[in-house]
């Protein structure tokens, strides 16, 4: 009952956004203007907080190069290109995102990271990567994306399809907090309004369960907390899985 009361209070505070959503105005404005602007700002903050973890996470990317020595990467939900700096020199990257409105920030990131070869940018959802041939990439990268895809299991199924045998899936995602914690209590309160305001981002997904149930041959996963005070997205999972 207390969760419903607090949800109602938060909805009242966000009433203008709910009204714009009802009128069909908020979603296109969010996709084209607000979310690209917000994502660039929050990515910069998140990047500072997770830099060491990302350096450690992507350290073994070269180990998954093909026998020819070539390393082909596919990034799902590239957004502003925050991960480019961690990719090995000379690797080939195919970028995908369901939202094509990140051009300016993405180009800035590409210009800063000339050590990477950018093959193409595809407007595609994580659940539908039909333009990417099966077994064609050595590694798939997905950070802060599985919170907002329509189907986590569908996305992981596509990841397994496009990966070659022995390829790896790298992830860093915010997830639901422990159910007995105050963090989870506030996640439940914020969830409906947060999802509306931030383009479908879900606060209470237990993504580690989807990864454990997917058909990976090896899963390296750990739970961490990212210092993002006054936000409901502090609990994270990080790691990689091998096909």
Q: Can you describe what's shown?
A:
This protein is of the alpha/beta class and 243 residues long. The protein has helices spanning 2-13, 15-22, 26-57, 103-112, 152-162, 182-197, 207-213, and strands at 72-76, 92-97, 117-123, 137-143, 163-174, 218-225, 235-242. The longest helix is centred in the first third of the chain and has 32 residues, at 26-57.
Question: How would you briefly describe this protein structure?
Answer:
GO terms for molecular function: S-adenosylmethionine-dependent methyltransferase activity. The chain is an alpha/beta fold and 243 residues long.
Please write out the topology.
Layout: H1 2-13, H2 15-22, H3 26-57, E1 72-76, E2 92-97, H4 103-112, E3 117-123, E4 137-143, H5 152-162, E5 163-174, H6 182-197, H7 207-213, E6 218-225, E7 235-242
Helix pairs in contact: 1-6
Q: What would the keywords be for this entry?
A:
243 residues, alpha/beta, Rossmann fold, 7-stranded mixed β-sheet, 7 helices, 40% helix, globular
Shape: globular
Total number of beta strands: 7
Q: What's the pLDDT, averaged over the residues? A: 93
Q: Report the CATH C-level class.
A: Alpha Beta
CATH topology: Rossmann fold
């Amino acid at each position: 009952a207390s969760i419903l009361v607090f949800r109602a209070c938060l909805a009242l505070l966000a009433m203008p956004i709910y009204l714009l959503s009802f009128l069909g105005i908020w979603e296109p404005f969010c996709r084209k203007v607000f979310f690209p602007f917000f994502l660039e700002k929050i990515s910069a903050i998140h990047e500072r907080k997770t830099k060491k973890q990302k350096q450690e996470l992507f350290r073994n990317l070269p180990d998954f190069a093909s026998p020819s020595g070539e390393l082909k990467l596919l990034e799902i939900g590239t957004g502003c290109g925050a991960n480019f700096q961690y990719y090995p020199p000379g690797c080939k990257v195919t970028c995908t995102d369901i939202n094509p409105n990140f051009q300016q920030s993405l180009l800035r990131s590409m210009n800063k990271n000339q050590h990477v070869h950018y093959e193409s940018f595809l407007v595609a959802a994580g659940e539908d990567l039909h333009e990417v041939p099966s077994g064609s990439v050595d590694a798939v990268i997905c950070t802060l994306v599985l919170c907002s895809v329509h189907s986590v299991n569908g996305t992981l199924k596509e990841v397994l399809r496009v990966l070659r045998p022995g390829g790896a899936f790298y992830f860093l995602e915010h997830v639901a907090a422990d159910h007995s914690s105050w963090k989870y209590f506030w996640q439940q309160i914020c969830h409906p309004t947060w999802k509306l305001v931030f383009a479908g981002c879900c606060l209470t997904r237990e993504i580690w369960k989807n990864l454990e149930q997917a058909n990976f041959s090896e899963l390296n996963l750990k739970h961490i907390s990212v210092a993002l005070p006054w936000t409901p997205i502090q609990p994270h999972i990080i790691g990689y899985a091998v096909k």
